[in-house]
Design goal:
Blueprint lengths: L1 E3 L3 H6 L1 H13 L6 H10 L1 H11 L4 E2 L5 E2 L8 E2 L4 E2 L1 H5 L8 E7 L4 E5 H17 L7 E5 L4 H12 L3 E5 L5 H11 L3 E5 L1 E4 L2 E4 L1 H9 L6 E5 L7 E2 H5 L12 E2 L3 E6 L9 E5 H15 L7 E4 L6 H8 L6 E6 L9 H8 L4 E5 H10 L3 H4 L7 E5 L5 H11 L4 E4 L1 E3 L4 E5 L6 E2 L5 E2 L5 E4 L12 E5 L9 E2 L6 H7 L7 E9 L5 E6 L4 E3 L2 E3 L1 H8 L5 E11 L2 E10 L7 H14 L8 E4 L13 H8 L29
Helix pairs in contact: 3-4, 4-11, 6-7, 8-9, 14-16
C-alpha cells in the first residue's frame, strides 16, 4: 500500500536526481531509475565514493587512489593516499554567527552555541588535551549525557588525532568498565548528574568507582558548575581559550571512534571506526537519501551510548544546526518530542521505532495541535517499524512527510537500507538499499533469495565505513567471525529480511543473539553477569520475542534445588538489572525453565530458544547436547500474553 510519494518538483530538485544527471554526463551510462543508479554505485565503488567526496565538498587531500579491492572484503581499501581530519570537516562550513548546536535538557533548560563559539571551544579542548600529553592514537572517553560539552570534547580530541568512545550515564560502572577498560583511556569526561523522567541521578559515587577501575586515566573532567573533587570542564579549558584552531590531517584509515558491540557472548567488542569512513558514509546518506542541506535543523533522539549520536554529530559537516536533547522523550508529557519539533522548527526528526509505537499506543495526535510546517523527514531506526506505525505517522503526525525507516548498525555507523526521496513509501517497507551498499538477502545456500522469501541480510561489496577492526584483535579473528563466516567473502549482518517487488525490503528482527530492548540493542552477557550473582539462580538465558509490532526481552532461568521463582525474586532481579546494568536490560518476563539447551561444548544456545519462541525453525539441532530441552519452550502460555 502506497502511503506517500514525492511530487515531480521534489524529484527534479532532489540531490539524487542531480547525481543521476552527473553520472550520465560523466560516464555516458544509461541511468534512468534509482535501481540503475544504485547498480552503478556498487559496480564502481571508487568512482561513486569519489563523487560523494566532491558533492560533500570534503576538506582534505583526496589523493588519486580511491579504491583498491584487496584480497577480500576485509582488506579492501578506500582513498589510499588521502589525508583528512573528521573534526575539520565537521567544523568547516557553518557561518560564524549562525547557530551550530541547540541543547535542550529535560527540565526545559535551552542553550545555543554559534559556529564561532563552537570552533573556539574545540580549539581550547585540543590545546588542553595536548598540554596533558594526549597524542594521536590515544583514547579519550566520556560517560555523559547528550549535551554540548560532550560534542566539543569529542571534536577537540579528534582534531589532534585522538580516538573517542562514549557511553551514556545510565550504564552501571561494571558496564562502563567492560567497555572503556579494554581500550585503556587517558582521559575521562563525566557529568555530576543527569535527569530522566523527572528524577535527578547523582553520578559522583559511580564515577569514583569507574575512575578507580581505569588505571590508565591521567585525568577526569566533570561537566558541572563547580565541584570540590574534580576539575570542571569550564575550568579545564579556560586557560586555553583563544588558542588557534588547527587540525592534524591523517590517513583515511586513522581511527576516530571506538564503538561497542552489545556484549552478546562476553565483554562488548570494541569496533574501531575510521573518522573519514563514517564521514563519507554519512555524507552519502544525508545528502542523497535524506535531503539534508544548509539551513536545516536536524534532531535525533539518542543517548551518547548509541551510534546515532555519532551519526548526528556527522550531520554538522553540512553546516546544519543540530539539536541535542537529554532526558525522557515522554516527560513531562508524551508530546515532548513533538513539542520540540514544533518549537525548534525542525526539518529532520529522528526517533526510534519504539518511540513511534509508544506514541501510537498513547493515542496522541500531533497533527491536530502541532504546526510542523518545516518538517520534511521523519526517520526511524533501532528496531523494526511496524506497518501500523507507518499508518500512524501519516494519519496522526504529518501527511506530507518523507517517512524513512532505515536499518544499519553500530557495526558500520551507517545504513544498509534507507529512504529514497524520489520513490514512494510503501506500508511496512524500507524503501531500498543505500547507494554504495550492495545490500541483498541470501537464502541458506548463500544465493540471492527470491522476492518475499525470508533470509539473511547481507552486503556483497566493501564500503568505507566498514570497521577497521576490533580492539585487541590483532589477527582479526573476532572481526572475521563476527561478519564474514556466515557466507564467505560477504558481510552477514544478522537481520532477517526479504525483498519486495517494489524494490523495497521488509525486516523481521535479529537473526543472532543480540537483543532489542525498547529500540536499543543490548547484549545477553550483560544481563547474565547481573542475574547469575543471585544465589538461587543456576543459569540464565535471554532472548528477544517479536511482540505487538516490536520486540520484548524474555529471561529464562534455572533455579538451584529448593529455590522458587516468586514475585519477590522477580522484583529483585529486575531491580538489580536496572541499577547494575541499565533500565533497558530489564526483561519484560522472567520465567523459570526446567533445563536450558546447550551445545556439546557446554555453551548455552540463545539462537535456538529465540527461534522456538518466535515460531521459526531451529537452525542447527545437531550441535546441541540436549536437543530435547527445546521442547519445553514450544507454545508456552506465558509467551502469549502481555
Amino acid at each position: 500500500m502506497k502511503l506517500w510519494e514525492p511530487s515531480p518538483q521534489e524529484i527534479k530538485a532532489s540531490a539524487l536526481t542531480q547525481l543521476m544527471n552527473v553520472v550520465r554526463s560523466q560516464t555516458g551510462t544509461s541511468i534512468d531509475s534509482y535501481s540503475d543508479l544504485h547498480r552503478w554505485s556498487i559496480e564502481n565503488p571508487g568512482l561513486f565514493w569519489s563523487q560523494v567526496w566532491d558533492d560533500a565538498a570534503i576538506v582534505g587531500e583526496k589523493g588519486s587512489q580511491y579504491y583498491k579491492p584487496g584480497k577480500d572484503f576485509m582488506n579492501a581499501q578506500f582513498f589510499l593516499d588521502a589525508r583528512i581530519n573528521l573534526a575539520e570537516n565537521l567544523l568547516a562550513k557553518g557561518k560564524d554567527a549562525d547557530t551550530a548546536i541547540v541543547s535542550i535538557l529535560e527540565d526545559g533548560t535551552r542553550s545555543e552555541i554559534t559556529w564561532a563559539q563552537l570552533r573556539e571551544s574545540v580549539a581550547a579542548v585540543a590545546s588542553a588535551l595536548r598540554a596533558e600529553g594526549v597524542v594521536p592514537g590515544d583514547r579519550v572517553v566520556a560517560w555523559v549525557p547528550n549535551v554540548t560539552e560532550t560534542l566539543i570534547y569529542a571534536l577537540g580530541a579528534i582534531s589532534i588525532g585522538a580516538v573517542v568512545s562514549t557511553a551514556s550515564p545510565d550504564f552501571a560502572p561494571s558496564a562502563v568498565v567492560d567497555r572503556f577498560g579494554q581500550i585503556e583511556p587517558k582521559f575521562l569526561l563525566a557529568s555530576s548528574s543527569y535527569f530522566y523522567a523527572g528524577k535527578e541521578f547523582d553520578c559522583i559515587p559511580r564515577l569514583k568507582e569507574i575512575q578507580a577501575s581505569l588505571p590508565t586515566l591521567v585525568k577526569t573532567i566533570l561537566i558541572a558548575d563547580q565541584h570540590d573533587l574534580f576539575t570542571t570542564f569550564d575550568q579545564w579549558i579556560a586557560p586555553h581559550r583563544g588558542k588557534p584552531l588547527t587540525f592534524l590531517r591523517l590517513p583515511f584509515n586513522h581511527p576516530a571512534f571506538v564503538l561497542f558491540s552489545s556484549g552478546t557472548t562476553g565483554k562488548p567488542k570494541c569496533i574501531i571506526h575510521s573518522g573519514a569512513g563514517i564521514l563519507l558514509k554519512g555524507a552519502a546518506e544525508h545528502i542523497y537519501h535524506l535531503g539534508i542541506k544548509p539551513g536545516d535543523k536536524a534532531f535525533y533522539f539518542t543517548t551518547c551510548g548509541w551510534m546515532m549520536w555519532n551519526w548526528l554529530t556527522c550531520v554538522l559537516q553540512h553546516g546544519v544546526t543540530i539539536v541535542l536533547y537529554d532526558g525522557s522523550p515522554m516527560y513531562p508529557t508524551s508530546m515532548r518530542v513533538f513539542d520540540l519539533a514544533e518549537s525548534e522548527e525542525l526539518t529532520f526528526l529522528g526517533v526510534s521505532a519504539k518511540f513511534i509505537d509508544s506514541s501510537h499506543k498513547e493515542g496522541i495526535s500531533p497533527i491536530k495541535n502541532h504546526a510542523l510546517r518545516n518538517l520534511r523527514t521523519i526517520a526511524s531506526t533501532g528496531s523494526v517499524l511496524s506497518p501500523e506505525s507507518f499508518d500512524y505517522i501519516y494519519s496522526d503526525v504529518k501527511k506530507d512527510v518523507h517517512l524513512v525507516s532505515f536499518s544499519g548498525g553500530t557495526d558500520i555507523c551507517g545504513c544498509f537500507l534507507i529512504g529514497i526521496p524520489t520513490l514512494p513509501v510503501y506500508r511496512g517497507e524500507l524503501q531500498g538499499p543505500a547507494l554504495g551498499m550492495a545490500t541483498d538477502v541470501f537464502d541458506s545456500s548463500g544465493k540471492s533469495a527470491d522476492l518475499d522469501v525470508k533470509g539473511e541480510l547481507v552486503c556483497t561489496v566493501p564500503f568505507p565505513s566498514k570497521p577497521l577492526g576490533f580492539w585487541n584483535d590483532p589477527a582479526d579473528e573476532l572481526y572475521r567471525s563476527a561478519y564474514y563466516e556466515g557466507f564467505p567473502g560477504v558481510w552477514t549482518h544478522g537481520d532477517f529480511a526479504s525483498k519486495s517487488a517494489t524494490g523495497g525490503f521488509t525486516l523481521y528482527g535479529r537473526s543472532d543473539a543480540t537483543l532489542n530492548s525498547k529500540g536499543v540493542r543490548i547484549g545477553t552477557a550483560e544481563i547474565y553477569r547481573v542475574v547469575e550473582t543471585f544465589p538461587q539462580i543456576q543459569e540464565s538465558l535471554a532472548v528477544s520475542q517479536d511482540w505487538d509490532g516490536d520486540t520484548r526481552v524474555l529471561l529464562f532461568i534455572t533455579l538451584k534445588s529448593g529455590s522458587h521463582l516468586d514475585e519477590t525474586l522477580t522484583a529483585e532481579i529486575k531491580k538489580a538489572l536496572r541499577t547494575q546494568a541499565s533500565p533497558r536490560h530489564v526483561p519484560e518476563k522472567i520465567i523459570a525453565a526446567p533445563e536450558l539447551p546447550r551445545t556439546k561444548s557446554n555453551k548455552l544456545v540463545e539462537l535456538a530458544v529465540g527461534d522456538i519462541v518466535n515460531g521459526r525453525e531451529v537452525r542447527n539441532t545437531d550441535a546441541l547436547a540436549n536437543p530435547q530441552a527445546l521442547n519445553w519452550f514450544k507454545d508456552l502460555p506465558q509467551l502469549q500474553t502481555d
